[in-house]
Design goal:
- There is one protein chain.
- The chain contains one helix and 13 strands.
- The mean pLDDT is 93.
- With 140 residues, the chain is mainly β.
C-alpha cells in the first residue's frame, strides 16, 4: 500500500480523507477514441508500466500509445469550483503536448451512492478533467 498521507484536504469548515478512493490497480474510462487510466493519491499501475514514468497517476491511451497526464508527487488539493462538497486534485508534469505539458484535474464530489466516474474530457488542449462521485468523497 502506498503512502496516502497527501490524500487529505481541509477547507476550514470540512475535513476530507480521500484515501478510501485509492484503487489497488486503477480506474479506467473510455471517452471518444481514447481510454483514460488513473488512480487517486497514488500512481496508476498501468500508467506506470505504459506511460514511462513510475509516478504517473493519470494516463491516456490513444491507439497503442500511452501519454502521461500527471505525476502523483505534483498533486495539489483545492475546493471544488462548482460549490459542491468534495475537493479536486490537480496533477501536472505530464508528457509534452503541442506547446504545453499535459495536466489533469480530478474532481471528487460527495455523493450518496457507490464510486462512479461521471465524466472524462479534454477541456482544452493538453488539459484534462475527470469527475467522480462517491460517498467516500464526503466530509468526515
Amino acid at each position: 500500500m502506498p503512502d496516502l498521507d497527501n490524500c487529505q484536504f481541509s477547507n476550514g469548515t470540512h475535513h476530507y480523507d480521500f484515501s478510501g478512493l485509492y484503487n489497488t490497480t486503477q480506474y479506467s474510462r473510455a471517452s471518444g477514441r481514447n481510454t483514460y487510466y488513473f488512480n487517486i493519491c497514488a500512481p496508476s499501475q498501468l500508467c506506470q508500466m505504459k506511460a514511462g514514468n513510475s509516478d504517473s497517476v493519470v494516463c491516456q491511451q490513444s491507439g497503442s500509445t500511452f501519454y502521461n497526464l500527471g505525476l502523483s508527487k505534483t498533486g495539489q488539493w483545492s475546493a471544488l469550483s462548482n460549490g459542491k462538497e468534495g475537493a479536486q486534485v490537480h496533477y501536472s508534469d505530464g508528457a509534452p503536448c503541442s506547446r504545453a505539458i499535459r495536466n489533469t484535474v480530478i474532481q471528487l464530489e460527495c455523493g450518496t451512492g457507490p464510486t462512479t466516474i461521471l465524466s472524462v474530457s479534454e477541456v482544452e488542449a493538453c488539459s484534462y478533467e475527470i469527475t467522480m462521485s462517491s460517498s467516500l468523497a464526503c466530509p468526515q
